[in-house]
Amino acid sequence: MKEIRLHGIGGMGTVKAGEMLVHAAVAAGKFGNSMPFFGFERQGAPVASYVRLGDQKIRAKNQVYHPDCVIIQDPSLLVSTPVFEGLKEHSYVILNTKSQNPRELITDPNVACLACLDATSIALELLGRPIPNTIVLGAFVRATGWVDKEGLEAVIGRTFGEKNIEAFRRGYD
């Protein structure tokens, strides 16, 4: 079983991104669950989503304490939220950042694979809004291979439409 923790700001589509990962996994015959975590003030506040994907039934319905992958949709969360807490050895990190030196931002020794992209700029260009969720999912699929690319494209298309499929592909590339 793979455990993923997504971190974002309310309004970035963090919870929806987790749900789409699970829908794509289930459509491919696998198992998954997604659980959001947020307070009363969602818009603009830190939000997390916990996802588990596997080949067998998943009974756990709690937070992800030891993720195999962390997806960070806003670089401000690197200093305001403990995004690397409990990170397993040899883990993946997907980071939305404009930084030219992202390795300087990521100091956790458990990070084996760091995938960085400026998802916000892509979202503004393609969608006209700073909602990077489908774009970072593209980078996630490219880095990990844990979810079928075409399956996730289909889920994104049904959920958000053609522009977001293009955004996903840009994140993948």
Structure characterization notes:
- It is a single chain.
- 36% of the residues lie in helices and 24% in strands.
- It is an alpha/beta fold.
- A 6-stranded mixed beta sheet has the order 2-3-1-4-5-6, with helices on one face.
- Helix 1 (14-27) packs across helix 5 (149-160), helix 4 (133-144) packs across helix 6 (162-172) and helix 5 (149-160) packs antiparallel against helix 6.
Features:
6-stranded mixed β-sheet, 173 residues, 24% strand
TL;DR of this structure?
With 173 residues, this protein is α/β, with parallel strands linked by helices. The chain has helices at residues 14-27, 77-80, 119-127, 133-144, 149-160, 162-172; strands at 2-9, 31-37, 46-54, 69-72, 91-96, 111-117. It contains 6 helices and 6 strands; from the N terminus they run βαβββαββαααα.
Strand arrangement, major sheet: 2-3-1-4-5-6
Tell me the series of helices and strands, N- to C-terminal.
EHEEEHEEHHHH
Number of strands: 6
Number of DSSP helices?
A: 6
Tell me the structural class: alpha/beta
How much strand? 15-25%
End-to-end CA span: 26 Å
What best-fitting shape do the alpha-carbon axes yield?
A: globular
Task: Return Rg in Å.
Answer: 15 Å
Average pLDDT, rounded to a whole number, is 94
Poorly predicted spans = none
Oligomer: single chain
Summarize the biggest pleated sheet: 6 strands, mixed
Q: Please bin the fraction of helical residues.
A: 25-40%
Write the layout of secondary structure elements.
Blueprint: E1 2-9, H1 14-27, E2 31-37, E3 46-54, E4 69-72, H2 77-80, E5 91-96, E6 111-117, H3 119-127, H4 133-144, H5 149-160, H6 162-172
Parallel strand pairs: 1-4, 4-5, 5-6
Antiparallel strand pairs: 1-3, 2-3
Helix pairs in contact: 1-5, 3-6, 4-6, 5-6
